[in-house]
# Entry
Amino acid sequence: MPRYKTVSDEQILDGLFGLILETGPDGLSFALAARACGLSPATMVQRFGNRLGLVEAVLLRAWDRLQAETEAADAEEALTPQGAINLLMRLMPPEDAKRNAADGLLLLREDLRNPNLRARGARWGHTLACALGRRLSSDQHAAERLGWQMAALWQGAHTWWAFTRTDEPEQAIRRMLEEWLTSTHKA
# Structure
């Protein structure tokens, strides 16, 4: 008689995302993962194969959640330059900025090393750039260029805020984005 899953893979992967932020991808083991989600290490191996498969599954699930958040923000935010800023600010709530500035770099390293994760991140980047571009220009070529520029600025703003931390993250990052919009619309 087959055994039914009482905890879905999605529940496991969502629960392990916080753990992988704490341990880094290299520190995630089946023993730690099993303790965190209340399953046996053998069950974890059956579901995810090996440790690298587990890490990849956790990070692919995180990309899927970010994709869904981006699509929801795209559907709800105004098709204006200010809507582009609001969309970006929704994707990294201020309460997560400090944790993501440091711990997120370990995940980014893994995303860049793993071809499946790198491809998934690139797909999300395209979604984000298109969503931003629609809010910045009605000209398709300009929209694509401006969307990628704004996405890059947003990522850079997070990085530089993490170094300086002179203001709260939301204020500092929003200010950088608004200054860029002002200079872009004057040009």
The mean pLDDT is 89. DSSP finds nine helices and no strands in the chain.
